[in-house]
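Quick illustration for those who missed Monday's session on complexes.
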Amino acid sequence: MRGCLRGVGESSRLLYTLAAGEQPAVVVGVHHGEADNTFTLTPAGEKLDALASGEISSRLLNSGSLLKGGSWRLVGKVHPDLGQVVAVGLGKPSGVQDEENIDMDRESVRKAAAAGVRAVTDLGLKEVQIENFGDCEAAGEGATLANWAFDRFKAEKKPRPAVTPLDSFTEEWLNGVRLGSAQNFARDLMECPANHLTPTLFVAEVIQQMKGLPVNIEARDQSWAEKMGMGSFLSVSRGSSEPPMFLEMSFLNGVKDADPIVLVGKGVTFDTGGISIKPSAKMDKMRADMGGAATVTATLKAVAEAALPVNLIVLVPLTENMPGGRATKPGDVVTAMNGKTIQVDNTDAEGRLILADALTYADKFNPRCVLDVATLTGAMMVALGTGATGVFSTSSKDFDVLSAAGRKTGDRVWRMPLWQHYTQQMKKSPLADLNNISLTPGGGACTAAAFLKEFTSCKNWMHLDIAGVMENEGAVSYMGSGMSGRPTRTLFQFVKDLQ
Ligand code: BES
Ligand code: ZN
Ligand code: ZN
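Prediction with zinc ion bound:
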């Protein structure tokens, strides 16, 4: 059914008052038409409209303004067999945009599904059936991501409607829900207050979450790290009373003995800056300085649930960065697992210190590729803001796979330089082989990446700096505010697509 809006009067969101109904609410999509002020219902919408003798389209026609992409309107009860009908806007079909490196149609579906869940939540309804808007997977993702809140420590919980697909539980819908849930798991870990998610508690939580999945988990303690010679990692944990941990997890479901993909995640469960202490404003956000650990762990969970035919290893060095009496002091020199010495001129540049040893350790798996993910530098936030994860890669081929993954998920990446220019800046240390900070101003994300490069022998290595995308304050409309769990879905897609 096509329609052209008549008067563009003051439109009200609630066209019809709610009556208590037994049936679940139903969400259907509305596209902008080619001509101004025209709209088209999706095929699922048309079907219900026919059932309701055109009542859906006629109510929309009479409702005044056009429904914008990502917004919703209550159509109300239109048929005794249907619950409350909610219409959501899909905008104009716009396809894949090369310049933007994004599939706008998939994004529109995520936004529409999210709007449907928001509508039903705001209306206080308990159950909702969402149509697939032509893309079951994206619909499942959007609906799941919108249906999240971190209210573990609140007496009053946010109501979360039960969401089901309008037609059937297709493989794609379930995959979308799985991906959305994995990202929500990463968000839970990131939001969790640091006193409730120490390195020890992180390990306990992960063991709990992986229960029933064929994932092998080894949780190593400080004495193991000492034996491995991880002097760089351990230099960070010295200032804290909480013992460090090193998680090694594997899901081996690919060709036997095929070189594994290794993901490494920065697991600083709280970053005070150490002796180079941070200012107190917004320091609480540093509870999410284990965003790398959270997203790689969530990726592993989704990969295991989906039983992808891959060999995947996930390494997570876990520690607090605190200014205790035994803490590393600026100017201290430590020795990393690969034998290189590091002058720690700034204890707040701790992420690279823990990743250095984890990257060296990753070499022992003879990996197909190594990706590390870290909330590493404020400079990354300055460079790209919340638009994309910054990626430094020694392999153009693998980067292209990651970039295509981001195009599909809408959680994009952008390539950054990994040049000797920056490496040289990190080698200017009066006391050691490397300095943990550059003494030349600017390019902080690039010098951090150049530092990490000194600790991997893998030919296909990528470093993902996720500091800019750590938090969502409205940039991704289908997610709501809070820690983002980005780029979990892109990592999953990369693992799936990599040959
Ligand atoms: N965890 C921070 C980086 C960060 C900042 C992540 C803001 C997310 C939001 C990291 O450990 C850090 O403090 N980096 C320093 C490095 C500097 C001392 C060279 C920074 O970016 O200021
Ligand atoms: Zn820091
Ligand atoms: Zn940090």
